[in-house]
Amino acid sequence: MRLARVRTPDGVRLALGTGGDELVCLDDIGPDPLAFLARPDRDRIVSRARGTRPRLRLDEVTLAAPVTPGKVLCLALNYRAHAAEGGFVPPERPVVFLKGPNTICGHGAEVVVPPESRRIDHEGELAVVIGRRARRLSAADWPAAVAGYTIMNDLTARDLQLADIERRHPWDLAKSFDGYGPTGPWLVTADEVDPGALELTVTVDGEVRQRASTQEMIFGVGELLCHLSAVLTLEPGDVIATGTPEGIGPVGDGSSVAVAISGLGVLRNRVRFARS
């Protein structure tokens, strides 16, 4: 099942993907996809909605991010080739940093680079959405904690990050500018996704910048969730961005970035540099 959240004059509404880039808004349903997935009558609602006309297209609506997370946990250096391009040794355990929930925006949103930074880099990633409260997950039970999967572009103020790294300072702030976490367009339920066999491609103005398979991740989704939940409690709606492959690079003023993951759709956003 594919779910999206559509901005309307009456507020955010939940919508069901009905094939391709088509969707239909769900009547009398709240905007929370996790609450909807927990409803005992969801299959009846979905069946009724799939027969509904007219349908909308993604390019006809304004989307919110598919979830509103309480926290965003991100993986660094989770692809060997990406670690190598940065001059790092592949890690022996997951390298985790935090990205502020203020970064989350939807498919089609314009990302504004403020005057405090003059370099923004793309980082396309598979993102996991937690569906239930989870602590100390195991290899046997982690799949039940996943509501679904989506796409994230872990945008980075690279000039500030590199300066912080050189000074051996934390660099979470370089990851946490407003709007630097485009997410979507869909939340695809876990029963339709094999997170270990997805193709990821990032293009900037049509030029391919990143291309890899999630098979190349050093730590797979299950291992990541077990590791994270041993340290902190995962809550419904939390997002885990699983790391980016090699090919990261700067995005110019006015450029369009597209992150495509097989089975999850294409996340598109345009970047604009604010003038000081």
Describe the protein's architecture and organization.
- The chain has 276 residues and is an alpha+beta fold.
- It has two domains: 2-64, SH3 type barrels (Roll); 72-273, Fumarylacetoacetase-like, C-terminal domain (Fumarylacetoacetate hydrolase, domain 2, Alpha-Beta Complex), CATH 3.90.850.10.
- The chain has six helices and 20 strands.
- The chain has helices at 33-37, 42-50, 80-85, 158-166, 172-175, 221-229, and strands spanning 2-8, 11-19, 22-25, 56-57, 62-64, 72-76, 95-99, 104-105, 110-113, 120-122, 124-130, 146-153, 156-157, 181-189, 199-204, 207-213, 239-241, 249-250, 256-261, 265-273.
- Strands 1, 2, 3, 4, 5, 6, 7, 8, 11, 12, 14 and 17 form a twelve-stranded mixed beta sheet that branches. Strands 9-20-19-15-16 form a five-stranded mixed beta sheet, with no helix packed on it.
- A hairpin with a 3-residue loop joins strand 19 and strand 20.
- The N and C termini lie far apart (44 Å).
- The relative contact order is 0.21.
